[in-house]
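I would like you to sit down with the record closing this message with an eye to the fold:
=====
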Amino acid sequence: MTALARIAGWIDTLNEGIGRAVSWLALLMVLVQFIVVLQRYVFGIGSIFMQESIVYMHGTLFMLVAGYTLLHNGHVRVDVFYRTMKPQAKAWVDLLGTLFLLWPVCYLIFTVSLPYVEASWAVREGSRETSGIQGVYLLKSVILVFVVLLALQGLSTIIHAMRILSGAEKPVEEASPIL
C-alpha cells in the first residue's frame, strides 16, 4: 500500500468515524424535540435552552457529516450521466470535480467564514436569549470543521480517482439509489 493510499484510508476512516458518531445526534434531536413538545403542550413549560439545543444539534449534524456523505457518494449530483459512465470516466469526473468545483468552494467558504468565526470568538458570542445556550461561537466554529472535513474527503476522492485511473485500485461499487 502506497503512502497516498494510506492517507486516503486515514481520511476515509476519520470521516467514517465522525459520521457514525455524529449521526446519533439525529436520535437525540428527536428525543429532545419530543420532550420540548411534551413540556409545552402537556405541562405548559417552555425551555429556550432545549429549543436552541435542537438547532445546535441539527447544524452540527449536517455540517460534520458532509465528509461522510461524500465518502459514501451521497451528495447530489447530475446522476443522469454519471451513473451510466464507466469507472474510468467516473474517476475523471470525481478528480476534476473535486479540483475545480469542490475545493474552490471549500476555499471560498473557509476564507469568508474565518473572520465571521473569529469575530464570534472574540466576544464569546452567545444566545440573544438570557436562558439560551451561550455558545454561538462554538456552533459557528463548526463551519470551519465542516470545510476541513469536506476538503480532506476531497483529497481522498482525488487519491482514489488517481489510483483507479492508474489501475492500482478497483472502483468501489456504489449502492443503488433508493427510489
